[in-house]
Queue: 2 jobs
Job 1
Amino acid sequence: MKKFKLACVVDDDKIFLYGIKRMMKLIGFCENLMVFHDGEEALEYLKPLIEAGDVVPEVILLDINMPIMDGWQFLDAFTHIGNPGKKYWFT
Amino acid sequence: MHRLDSDTYRLLLEDTLTGYWEYNLETRSVSVSTTFKQVLGYDEEELSDVGKVWKQIIHEDDQESLVTAYQNLVASRGETTFKLALRYHHKNGSIIWMMTRGRAFRWNGKGEVSCMIGSLRDITAQKEYERQLKTSESRFKDSFNSSAIGMALVGIDGHWLEVNDTMCKIVGYSKAELKEMTFQDLTHPDDLKADLRNVELLLQGRIPFYQLEKRYVHRSGEVVWILLSVSLVRDADAEPLHFVSQIEDVTTRKVAEEELKNSLAVVSKQNERLLNFAHIVSHNLRSHAANMEMMLGLAKNEDDPREQTFLMSSMQDINSSFKSTLDHLTEVVLIQLDRDLATEPLSLRRYIDKTLDIVAGELRAEGGQAEVLVDSGMLVQFYPAYLDSILLNLISNAIKYRHPERPPLIRISASYYDHGYIALSIADNGLGIDLQKHGHKLFGMYKTFHKNKNSRGIGLFITKNQVEALGGRIEVTSKPDNGSTFTLYLPYEKI
């Protein structure tokens, strides 16, 4: 499987994050990993990056049930950020 | 122009099948025309002396009126005339009706009537028709009166012209009372417009009849649901004469319909709760189970003792989360099941004061204040443990989510709301909630909106369940930075 340069996980469950990190390490999922605990955090960080055309994660693992800003709200806001022409994968 | 002679007259009279007669008062003789004899079924040769046999020709019961009319004519010296519908015996034994007319024709020197003439016209067919009409009318009246459905004849202006007993029973007014009223008087104000619209269409001839479910107000003031069917009777010139209305009492059916609608609403709400519950169960419990599986998997292949310890403690965390979720869900299930909780009249003021005592320390520490505008006599019909829990949740939330730039100010007030509820509002000046973003999740399980480490996201969920279990409702208004107001609608018992 191709190794991603940069992947991202958005999930509020710390235990899940621990597990997924270890599993990703095991299978060599990605070179670098971004971790956020809720949608708002993720959005605040990623928005300026995208608008500046900077390096952004190729894949984002997004949890639905999160506090403050859940998965759906994040998705809504995220898809409205500028810079078309790039494809994002959400799981 | 020359006048027709008497022979011509006679011929004309013969032709119209109107018999004529002549009575000479001086000679006391009666002469009749051929037609006279014909209509009675006699030949020319028979009935030679009508004067003698007239009592046998005319029906016994009708003789008196003829005699009286004759006497009046004579006494008035021919001023009066008569026109009577009398029964005659036809030769074949049947009875025929004849319009019998008579007038004075000649007078003697003393001004007394000396000669009378008259005519006889067969009106049997007409009389038969009248009789049939009377029978059908009385049959109609019988069915009208004995009908199990309310029936009425209503004037064009809406006045009750005729009503049957059933109609009186339906609305509680007597026939006499109804005849002084219009249908507009009886109709429930909300239903009047639709009714009048239909009446208009009916009068214009755009519809042949209409049927409507509407309400009357019974004499006692109660509302009666009826199924109304109205048609219009017009006269020979197609002008509206009156309405014919049928009124069927459908109150029991309507009440049952309303109850069914309510049950449906209750059931669909319960269904919604059930689905919601299933969601929560499947998601929350499943995530704990999945995590557990993940940790166990990693632990199996783990050699590093430090990692092992970490995994162990993680599994312990997962386990307590599991239990915690189960406890919350159980609590909710119990709230749903315990719907026959013994409620009591509770003093709202006392419970609020009690809660404020509990949070007094915390409130003081934040430099906050609480203002209570609740009448001490206000009682709510509620379950004590739930009232405690609800008030504590809402009031401690008001303190917890204070605005960093100002001390918390909590305003608690209550007023009577219609339909047997008290509206209790708890307003704060804290952080507020973006209802557009979070409104639909506010009372959900494990939903938090602020980065407060004490938010578990379960308080409002439980509160809502408790409020609704006892027939109440909870609403919120809020703006970010502008504080929130939670309003509870709680059932009450009037003292």
Note: The mean pLDDT of chain B is 86.
Job 2
Amino acid sequence: MRDIVSTYLKTIKETDQDIKAFLEIYDDVEEQAEGQGKDKPLSGVLVALKDNLLLKGKKAQSASQILSGYKAPYTATAVERLKQAGAIFVGRTNMDEFAMGSSTEHSSFGPTRNPHDPSRIPGGSSGGSAAAVAAGMVTVALGSDTGGSIRQPAALCGVVGLKPTYGAVSRYGLMAMGSSLDQIGPFGRSVTDVEKIHNIIAGPDEYDATTLTKEERADQPKTKDSYTIGVPWSLVEREGIDEGVLENFRKSLEKLREQGHEIKDVEFEYLEKSLAVYYIVMPAEVSSNLARFDGVKYGLRAEAKDGIEEYFATRAAGFGDEVKRRIILGTYLLSAGYYDAYYGQAVQVRSLIRQELEEKWQDVDLIATPTTPTPAWELGEISDPLQMYLADIFTVPANIAGVPAISVPSGEVETDGAKLPLGLQFMAPHLGEDRLFDVGKRFLDEN
Amino acid sequence: MHLAKLARIRLTESEIKQYQKEVSDILGYVEQVQEVGDAPEEGVKRQPRVVLREDDNPHESGTFKEDLLANAPESEDGFIKVPRIL
């Protein structure tokens, strides 16, 4: 086992020279392999962890300088469950700093490259995890998804990525970004692998009060022989969506029809406000969650003449551009005089979006959209923050509503001579992961 | 910039200018939530479920002290050392 792992590690290190998916490859991988043995469900399975997940004794820093040197004093529940199942952790993967971004360009360590075209981004914020799986360096990886950070890089890298129902997987040990939005989820090269990992890490956790109890998980939407799949055409056929993406999406729908499913148009009044709601709720939660990084208890501490100066200086030095931007934005949205107009209003609209979506499940079993409006773009191509945010247009509704969603590879589009992957996204009702796995496996001809 | 003070981040002059513009652009986009009509009906407001628990069975004092202090930028005699406040 040790020799096999050593060989794998060598290949991983070579492959990663060009891709830079990993921030660190652990120095005890062979030992872990030996310790994990051969008879557990995940024995021999190499797993990569996004840099915002804690594994006791290992460094973790959400790709930020403000957590330089920090070593996890405990292990995240999701990671612990994989460990108990026999998994071998290869290392921690690159990400946009504190999960803020859609390209992994906002990492304080520089970007990861898309294995399909190294001049392009892998997506974000879990770009490293997506690339590690896409390049065959690991079998599966864990990421986190707050507005699309698993599904979007999965689509752009040509792999499968799942965001579970909010509360399905414990967030204990995941560095918090948007506490009402965050979920941990798996990347894999097949829906079967993603399903396996999800079922191991999901479940109630007394360390995370937002996890669903056993009773709350009792009622799950059933799988069916064929599904009625809703498509929100007015959201999909909008300005800014790539022609190649639309064509690929139509082909995917054709395939679904051939597989026996019914495709239906669905109209939404509130759903397309999801992105605006997201960019109010998320920065607000971010500004609150990142207040803990103050240079006092852990991580970077800047030189300063007194304690107050030290806060200002540490945070100035330790946070990158995008993080500062979102903290400033969130601070504004929550400040006296603006709280009701923005945050208060956004929370109410969020309720409307949730309710509207819940009513739609009476008409349809699943909802399908392209995962992203475009294929992977070139490194440095998008510098306007708002333009980058628009990449999340199809993914954020699932986080806003708390429903599960999966992205499965749907083929390629050719752009400037490069063949770039695209993804098809399915959304299911609350706790409808089994439907996502079912329709996904069939779409990818996995059975 | 007042917001920078609230956020406890020292910003340079050029950063202030940059963020002012960018935040303004983003606000221009998210403002659309205000176009949405009235508050949702009573039925939509979810009842929060109470997840508070009693502080029973605390772990033994000092169990995690080593691990936590190990991450402190500076420590002395089991305390985290910080620059003076007053």
Note: Chain B touches chain A through 41 residues (CB under 8 Å).
